[in-house]
Amino acid sequence: MIVVIDYCVGNVRSVCNALDYIGCENRLSAEQKDIEQADGIILPGVAAFGFAVNALGKSAELVIEAANSGKPLLGICVGYQMLFDSSSELGEHKGLGLIEGRVVPLPADKGLTVPHMGWNEVAVSPEMHIFDGMRDKEYMYFAHSFHAEVQNKSAAVAYTDYGGAVVASIQKDNIYGVQFHPEKSSDTGLEILRNFEKICMNRI
User: Is the pLDDT of residue 168 over 80?
Assistant: First the structure.
């Protein structure tokens, strides 16, 4: 079973609906018992970074403990951004510190629209399990104004091009993150979620 962390921010229910659609057993919860018993955890989110971190509250420590124990963790959008050390969105905010890096604004000086909203091509990294079986390039749906500057050199990274290389996805051991929304990325996004379920069940 996959537990989707319930902290009343953004797209938690839509992620559960996508998991239901692919037949993946899941539960929306922030209870310690559920998190400890889960095969894997998804941390979604659509909100400003600071608001999301505050809303996560005491569940943050449960997520950190689960990830440090080796349990697969997938962060989506702001849930992905919270995996890093900090963010400068609407002030300085501390993240979960699971991956070395910092969340900063997308550059607004390149004639591109910010926030970045819509479909963009992701250059798939073959070493990342979450893209198992996919083509070299896939289109995903993005909605964000900030992006992560990754400082962990051992992490595997996939990029999209939006006025330059922007990190679209990351893998550090059992910790996965995607800036895009797999639950809004049609069949390709559903395949991302299927792959995460396989990872949780030790089938990848």
Answer: yes
